[in-house]
Amino acid sequence: MQKIVPIKCPKCNNKDSFYRYGKDRDGYQKYLCRKCNHQFAPDRPTSKKVPKYPRCPVCGKATFLHHDYEYYSNYRCCDKKCNYSMFVPKPNNILPASMSKLVGKNDFKRMRYPVHIIITALSMFYLGKNSFRNIALILRVAHNVKVSHTTISNWCKKFAPFFNNLSLELIPMLDFNSDEWHADETVIKINGQKYYIWFIIDSETRFVLGFHLSPYRDSSQAFALLNSVKDLGTVNAIVSDRYSAYKVPVKSVLGSSVKHIRVESFKDDVSNNLIESFHHQFKAWYKTKQGFNSFESANNLISMFIFFYNFVRPHSSLNGLTPAQVAGLNLTEREKKKYLLVA
């Protein structure tokens, strides 16, 4: 028995008066509405056109391209009464943050010294203000282990990819949904040249979410920093200083729903003292190194310093816990040994 499919004109909703009108170029039966003379093929699969530009999130109407830049596009609502302006990033054009460009070893294989000696030397370097020669002296006197200060220097640089991989495994266990993230930049010297190190910190856990090392101080570097941490969690506000390079990256990368608080002075209700305090600790560690020799070594050393700051070093302001523990990291003793968080 033949199945009868009801036909309806998509233009005037006519259901009973049609002519067969041949077939279209793909072989589908066409019909002609006798009331409005509209031609249509009901069996032809419909394909929805993808709009070229995004819809306005406020009124839902179409938008037009107002300005097109290298790292983002600015769209405006076609409705003059709405006139909403939004920024859409171009992820393929945004440069990756320097913390993704680490060079070195991914394991402790083929090492002459035991792992616990290497971890002890790294802890003394990143948790204290010891020089490589002082660490070599302490290892020789306290542990009767003779190791060159040059070897310790190589340890502190070459294991950055290994500890970065540990961090990438642990971060999915943490919760960074917060009211505020704080962003700021400071100056360091690499081989006598001025470089800028950009940091972003969670206000509730004191966890350093990411960093970016660059010889430039412009909005493209802020794009790289924010793009590297945008998927870690949801945040209500970004706190920064009055530097204009943060304005567009915050709007385009994190969205218009994230409030951007630009601190003008220390008298404001919301301050950027949290990240300034971190800069004080970072500079105290950095000054003992008397600068860095190359971009690669500086990038590796800063990456490992942040790992020890986030996962190893207990903070008095956090009741003796690490930022990772405040963010929800709860490991067994066996898991702590696996991730080298205990000796």
What does this structure look like?
The protein is 31% helix and 20% strand. By secondary structure, the chain is α+β, with helices and mostly antiparallel strands. The protein folds into 3 domains: 1-47, N-terminal domain of TfIIb (Single Sheet), CATH 2.20.25; 48-93, no CATH class; 94-343, Nucleotidyltransferase, domain 5, CATH 3.30.420. It is elongated, with a radius of gyration of 29 Å. The termini are far apart. Keywords: DNA recombination, DNA-binding, Transposition. Involved in the transposition of the insertion sequence.
Give the structure's gist in a few sentences.
The protein has 343 residues and is α+β, with helices and mostly antiparallel strands.
Structural class: alpha+beta
Q: CATH superfamily membership of the largest domain, which one?
A: Ribonuclease H-like superfamily/Ribonuclease H
Strand content: 15-25%
The H-and-E topology, N to C, reads as EEEEEEHHHHEEEHEHEHHHH
Strand order across the largest sheet: 9-8-7-10-11
GO biological process, one term: DNA integration
GO molecular function: DNA binding
Keywords: DNA recombination, DNA-binding, Transposition
Protein name: Transposase
Helix and strand topology:
Elements (H helix, E strand, L loop, with lengths): L17 E6 L5 E5 L5 E2 L22 E6 L3 E6 L7 E5 L25 H13 L4 H11 L6 H10 L1 H11 L7 E13 L2 E10 L5 E7 L4 H11 L5 E6 L6 H8 L4 E4 L10 H15 L7 H18 L10 H4 L6 H6 L5
Parallel strand pairs: 7-10, 10-11
Antiparallel strand pairs: 1-2, 2-3, 4-5, 5-6, 7-8, 8-9
Helix pairs in contact: 1-2, 2-3, 4-8, 5-6
Keywords: DNA recombination, DNA-binding, Transposition
Protein name: Transposase
Pfam families: DDE_Tnp_IS240 (PF13610), Zn_ribbon_InsA (PF03811)
